[in-house]
Design brief:
The chain is mainly α. It has four helices and two strands, in the order H-E-H-E-H-H. It has one domain. Strands 1-2 form a two-stranded parallel ribbon. Strand 1, helix 2 and strand 2 form a beta-alpha-beta unit. The longest helix is centred in the C-terminal third of the chain and has 9 residues.
């Protein structure tokens, strides 16, 4: 199942040069091709994180979505805050 992006292309394009912006490319494919797809082309400065290896939580929420506090800690490791 393909999920929609968190922001639209126009919003992102208008802000790509902002120093505080952090883009995390979370491509994940069951066949393990997420890294190869990222390596073949990604937004300048985008950080790659495989959803299942780097961001997914083992918990009660569907699809391994971390609880809000845990997600905030994960994002904080990448320089992302409120």
């Amino acid at each position: 199942m393909e999920l929609p992006p968190l922001v639209d292309v126009g919003w992102l394009a208008a802000r790509l040069d902002e120093p505080a912006l952090r883009v995390i490319d979370c491509r994940w494919r069951g066949d393990g091709s997420g890294w190869a797809r990222y390596a073949a082309g990604h937004l300048p400065g985008a950080l790659y994180r495989d959803w299942s290896r780097h961001l997914r939580a083992r918990g009660p929420l569907p699809q391994g979505v971390p609880a809000p506090a845990a997600f905030a800690r994960l994002m904080g490791c990448h320089g992302i805050s409120a």
